[in-house]
From TrEMBL, chains A, B:
This is Homoserine dehydrogenase. It catalyses: L-homoserine + NADP(+) = L-aspartate 4-semialdehyde + NADPH + H(+). Keywords: Amino-acid biosynthesis, Methionine biosynthesis, NADP, Oxidoreductase, Sodium, Threonine biosynthesis. Its EC number is 1.1.1.3. It comes from Longibaculum muris. InterPro entries: Asp/hSer_DH_NAD-bd, HDH, HDH_cat, NAD(P)-bd_dom_sf. One of its GO terms (biological process) is threonine biosynthetic process. The keyword Amino-acid biosynthesis applies. Belongs to the homoserine dehydrogenase family. The lineage of its organism: Bacteria, Bacillati, Bacillota, Erysipelotrichia, Erysipelotrichales. Residues 7-122 form the Aspartate/homoserine dehydrogenase NAD-binding domain. NADPH binds at K98.
């Protein structure tokens, strides 16, 4: 496969890097050559050897050898032109462009179908978290009833900061901005528009429908106050910006709004810039996908899996190597409860009744067992 | 596609039901006919009309029309014979049989490769949670470094019960047994053997290796006491049965052992019979898959997605219908903070300083807003 990457910003350059670094492994996986032929960008960049640099996307689209065009410039004007033209030439297209799919998805999908080209966009929702593809392929047995998610990392970061550092919205926003978490057009994140783009994409596939983006009512987090957060916590809840889509009696209910979630709920414990998508369906009940929602390599990882998917051979040949060197994982932090105090490095220690309780530092199990000879004890690993 | 389902117990019959109920939708998705031709089982069962019942699996394997054989009888003797013979005839095979793959995976995979047949087993790990396929296909860009998971629902149910009901292991086991959570051979669950089967399957694919099952050291939960659970909690941890596999300096570290997990960690909050798999890799960092690990339709859901996968056409045609009836989700529980008390049905109410705070019962937003006319208030949805 010969790939043209159009847009060499954070994610685009990450894609080129991964395809270069993992070339050999990816070629083994899919059983054919994987070559980046073009990198296209208006800003001049230094590309790995062998990749042609161009400022003109027509060079990529008009090259018959290129069969996968990766659009990572963003926006809804030139990006759309590139995608439509590439599809019309029968080239497969991969993108992370959620705004474009939310607004012009139907036209793009129909162009792809008409020209028998593939159009994949896993990276448009949840960064690198596999969710667009699994929701369609792996849940195929199910009728999807509801999708709920924290789909915007920036607002989740701000909400987490408000709680942990006891800040009001404006204060947390200033800090998040200073840390580079807020985009030039802050409204996309703060007013729930980015989350709305993403829930539209998930809803289209889940319910097999097209609909206009402006039907989604999006409310952002500007109205969330520290005071309400505190009251919510007192009641056992945390406030999150939730994007939701579900079947309702007379159609489909889809919106984005700040929502109280019980602290006992997994979704309430998704903090910082993490994303989560929970899907409820008729057979599988509820299933949840969680991970980092943004970042150069995180998002590039999803783009690369889409690129491979355009040429999906059977990846399940299992031509693995037989190995002998399998061991228990004995180096760990340990929890120890014993009768006497120990001569070890530890993270935490306390004693209660006749028990001595340790959380050790990282230690080899044998070194620890040596200390415990002749003692009565109980011992478990500690994660981390 | 013509399917033969061998084994009509809990999961097998669930597969037949799903394929019957969802026939039309599945056929649209993959663009071809989906027919269950045989149901095979020693115990006589009543099958939906049109499906041939047989007690002899040879009827299924020897029918040239059948191109997907679904093995759901379990065990490692007859099940293996059926799978190997079906693969040798070039039929695709789908199974949920983790013990068999853990013990004889290499032989089965090699037979499948030799005869150009597909062999899928998503349901063998994590019940219906998509994790075997996503870990391989959707994370293809990544080198997987570590896999950790709660892979056995029975032991997680017992550990949760010990904590919530303040029971010791034996007491919780008795209750779990009474509720039907414990299998005839309790040791498979309690001694971590089932979890070891599953981590072997995940490790094989993640690291592209084969290895002998008996290399995995499995420790179950019999040594977990209520006392240690209480001490762990005091330190901010919860005890879970964790299956782990990672690259280590001189090979691969793989084991199953009770492990303390920080309560701040998502994995510590996986309770009851839920399963979770967390995968750490070089680009995507950490990604987590969570859901029900067992149950008739839960597991059958994964089996059906594998069956569809054997005939994977492009499911991404996006031939969706355009719809107008998209609405915000206005019927919800609400959090309201306002100046005066309200005349509404509520779940929780308290007042503090000059604030009145409600968690309402389910209510239409307009009905609530009517009550709030002229008031100063803040309002958010409440999940659930």
């Amino acid at each position: 496969m010969k790939i043209g990457v159009v847009g060499l910003g954070t994610v685009g350059f990450g894609v080129v890097e991964i395809l270069t670094q993992q070339k050999e492994r990816l070629e083994k996986q899919i059983g054919e050559e994987v070559t980046v032929k073009y990198g296209c960008s208006l800003d001049e960049v230094t590309l790995p050897e062998g990749i042609i640099y161009t400022q003109d996307f027509n060079d990529v689209i008009n090259d018959d050898e290129v069969d996968v065009v990766v659009e990572l410039i963003g926006g809804t004007t030139i990006a759309k032109k590139i995608i439509i033209e590439a599809l019309k030439k029968g080239k497969n297209v991969v993108t992370a462009n959620k705004a474009l799919i939310a607004h012009d998805g139907q036209e793009i999908f129909e162009t792809a179908a008409k020209h028998h080209a593939k159009f994949y966009y896993e990276a448009s929702v949840g960064g690198g978290i596999p969710v667009v593809v699994p929701a369609k392929e792996d849940l195929i047995a199910n009728e999807i009833e509801k999708i709920e998610g924290i789909l915007n990392g920036t607002t989740n970061f701000i909400l987490t900061l408000m709680e942990t550092d006891n800040l009001d919205f404006d204060e947390a926003l200033t800090i998040a901005d200073g840390l580079g978490y807020v985009e030039a057009d802050a409204s996309l994140d703060l007013d729930g528009i980015d989350a709305a783009h993403k829930i539209q994409i998930l809803a289209m596939n889940a319910f097999e429908i097209f609909f206009d983006f402006d039907k989604i009512k999006a409310t952002g987090i500007r109205s969330v106050t520290k005071k309400d957060m505190d009251y919510a916590k007192k009641l056992g809840y945390r406030i999150k910006l939730i994007a939701q889509a579900k079947k309702i009696e007379n159609g489909y209910g889809i919106d984005v709004s700040p929502t109280l979630i019980s602290l006992k709920d997994m979704v309430a414990n998704v903090n910082q810039a993490y994303n989560v998508v929970e899907i409820t369906c008729n057979y599988l009940e509820n299933v949840l996908f969680y991970g980092k929602g943004a970042g150069r390599y995180v998002t590039a990882s999803a783009v690369v899996s889409d690129i491979m998917k355009t040429h999906q051979q059977d990846m399940w040949k299992h031509d693995y190597q037989y190995v002998e060197n399998i061991y228990p994982i004995t180096k760990s932090k340990y929890y120890v409860r014993c009768d006497h105090s120990l001569d070890i490095d530890y993270e935490t220690y306390f004693s209660q009744d006749h028990d001595h309780i340790y959380i050790t530092n990282q230690i080899e199990l044998n070194d620890l067992l040596e200390q415990l000879q002749g003692e009565t004890y109980n011992l478990f690993k500690v994660r981390g």
